[in-house]
Amino acid sequence: MDLKGLSAMISGMVDKKVSSERFDICKDCDKLTVMNTCRACGCFMKAKVKFKKAFCPLDKWGASE
Known about the structure:
This protein has helices at residues 3-11, 16-27, 45-48. The protein has three helices and no strands.
């Protein structure tokens, strides 16, 4: 991967603080399974919380700018 591609990939992600805050919300939700997938959207939440454009389908957290 070249630097331009790496930069584009990184710019689409939130920082560690935001991803931790999002996942903390998920951990308190009854839709999170023991395998860390969401029953509402089917996503693997430890990965989904890292992307800026990701959002909770239950409106518990939203996309970041």
